[in-house]
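dumping the sequnces here before i forget
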Amino acid sequence: MRINPNITSDILNAISQAELQQQKAVQEVATGKRVNVPSDDPAAAAEMVQNLALSSQTDQYLQNTSSVEGLLQTADSALSSVVTSLNQAIGLGVQGSTGTLSSSNRQAIVEQLQGVFAQVVQLANSSYEGSYIFGGTATTAPPYAPDPTQTDGVTYNGNTGVNSVDIANGRSIQINVPGSQIFQAAGGDVMGSLQQLITALQSGNTTASGTATTQLRTAMDSLSQQRVFYGNAINQLTSNQSFLQQEKVNLQTQQNDLVGIDPAQAATDLSQAEMAYNSGLAAAAKVLPPSLMDYLK
Amino acid sequence: MPGLTSSILMATQSLLADQGALATTTNNISNANTPGYTREVAILNEAPPSIEGSLVYGNGVTLDKIQSVRDQLLDLRISEETQQQGSAQSQLSAMQQVQALFSDSTQGIGADLTAFFNSISQLSTNPTSVPQRQSVLTAAQNLVSSFQQTESNLNTIQSDLNQSVSDTVSQINSLTQQIAQLNAQVGQLQSLGKDPGVLADQENQLVQQLSQLTDVSVIQTEHGETITTSGGTALVVGGQSFSLQVAPNASGMEHIFAQGQDITASIQNGQLGGTLQIRDTVIPGILNQIDTLAGQFATSFNTAHEAGFDLSGNPGAAFFSVTAGTGAASSLRVAITDPNAIAASSDGSAGSNGNIAQLMAVQTQALPSGANPLDSYANVVSLTGNVTAQAQAEVSASTASLNQLNDQRGSISGVSIDQESANLITYQRAFEAAARVVTTVDQLTQTIIGMGASAPTVY
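..and the predicted 3d for all of it:
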C-alpha cells in the first residue's frame, strides 16, 4: 500500500494540536477558571450570570440589613428613654396623689411632669439619617407638635403607614411602627395619660391623679409591648446577617463548581499537554530528515 | 530478420524513453513540495513488434505518455470538505468576536440589571434620601449604556461581516476568471485525448481556493470542468466565467446577485456562506433577543413605576423611554432626570417605600417573552456560547476530515522522494545499458566493416 509520502503537514498538525491543548491548559491554570468564554461551557456561563446576580443581591441584602439595623436601634433606644421618662412620671404621679402635699410642692411636681412630657414629645420626634422614625411614612416633618388645645396636648402629623425592606430573597421585614400606635394607642395612650395626670395634679384632685397614674402605668406597659417589635426585628436582622454570610459562601462554592478548575486535574492536564507537545517535537525531529537520498551518496 | 541498424534504432529509442522517464522523475522531485502538485508517471510501452514468418521480434520501448496520478472523486470530496471548513472557520472567527461581548459576567447588561435593582433595594431603606435616589438614576444610566453599547458592538461586527461579503465576492470573481482561462486550455487538451497534467493541477488548486470561499459543485465534462454554486448558478462553463455582483438591500446589507438574480439565501457554505449565516441569522437573532428584553423590561418597569408616587406625592411618570421593536436597545433612555421623580411611595407620602416592592418585582417576574430580565440575558449568553462552541466543533471535525482526505490524496498523488530516487536509479541504469547496447552494436558494426577490410588480399 502506498502511504502519503508527505508527512510534514501531518506532523505540523499534530504539533499545533498539542500546542493548542497546552495553551488551553496553561490558561486554565493561570486563570483558575475552566470557563473563560461562554463557548467553553455555555450552560455554565449562563448559570454564572445568575450566580453573580444572586451574589450581588446578597451583598445588597447585607447592606440593607445594616442600614435598617441602625434605624431600628435608634428607635429602640428612643423608646427605652421614653420608658425611663415614664417611670419617672409614674413616680411623680404616685408622689402627687398623696393628699398631704402642699400646693407649691404639687406645682413643682406638675412642672417636672411638664418637663417629662416635653421630653417624650421630643423622643417621639426622633430621626434617623434625616427621616423621622415615628411618623409612619410621613417622615419628612416632625410627627408631634405640642398643641394645648388637644386633650393629648399634641397634634399627630404622621400617618399610619408602615415600610418594609427586603432583607433576603423573598423575605422582608417591617421597619417601623407609626407613632400613633406607640404613643396614642387606644387603651394605652401615653400622651393622653401624661396630660390627664398633669391636669389632675394642677386641680389638686388626688383621686383623679391616682386614676391617671394607673392609666399611665397601663400606657407604659402598652408602649413596652410595642418596643418588643423593635427588639424582635433587631434579633431577626442579626440572625439574617449570618444567614446571608452563609449564603455568600454557598454561592462562592457554587461559582467555583461552575467555572473553577480542579487544581490537581488542571496540573495533570497541563503536564500531559506539555508532554504531548514535547514528544511531538522530538518525533518530528527524528522522523523528518531521512529519505533514500541519504543512503545513495 | 532485424539487423544491427534496427538494434541501434531500438537502443536510441530506449535512450529517448529513459530520458523522458528521467525527466518525469526529475519533475516529480522538483515539485515534491509544490502545493497541489500531482505526481506524474512515464507510461512506457512495448513498441509494435515486427513479424517475420513464424518469428515475432520485439521492437523496443516507446514512451507512450506522461500521466498525472489523480483521483478525481477524492478531489471532489476535498472540495466539499473545504467548503464546510471555510464556513465553520468564518463562523467561528465572527462568533469569537460576538461572544467576547458576553464573556465577562461581572459587567454588561446582566451585571448592570442587578446593580440597578440593588440600588432600588437600597433606596427602600431610606426612601427620602436624595443621594440614594441619585444612585438609582446613575445605575439606570449605566444599564441603559450597557444596552446601547452591546447593540452598537453587535452592529459593528455585523457591518464588518457585511464588508467582508463584498471582499469575498470579488475574490470569487477573480478566481473564477483564472479558472475559466485554465479550463479552456485543459478542455482543449482533454478533447485531444491528452493528459492536461500541470494545467489540471493548477486548476484544481484554484478550485480548492474557490471552495474555501463559497459553495461550489464541480462537474467533469469532456471540455474541462463546469463549476456551479450548489444552488445551480453557473460560475465557470468551459472557457467562460460568470461573475457575481453585490448590491445593498434596504438595510444596507450586501446581497449577492448572479445574472440579476438574488442568490444570497442559497449560499450555505464556504467563507461566504459562514459569513452570511452569522450576518443574516445569528446576529439578528441575538439583536432581536436584546431588543425584546430592552423593550419589555422598560415597559414593565414603567408600569410598576407609574403605579407609585414620587417624593412630592405626584403620580409616577414613565421611568424609561423606549421605542419597541428593532433597535429598542439603542433607543432606551432614562426618561426622568430629577431624583425626586422616582416613584418609591405607594400612598403619596414622601417616606413610604411601598411601591419599591412593585419595582423590585420586575426583577423576578417573567416578561411577556416568558423569562425574567436576567434569565433573558442569560439566554443570550448561552446562545452565543452554543453557536460558538458548535462552530468550534465543526472546525475541528472538518479540519480532521480534511487532513485525512489530504493524506489519502497524498497517498495517491503525492511525490515520494524514496520512490523517485529508486526510479532515478532504475532509469539511470536502463539508460546506461541502452548506451552500452549502442556501443556494443557499434563494435559489431566495426567488426563487420573490419570483416571486409581485413580480408586477405589476393595478388
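Chain B has a mean pLDDT of 91.
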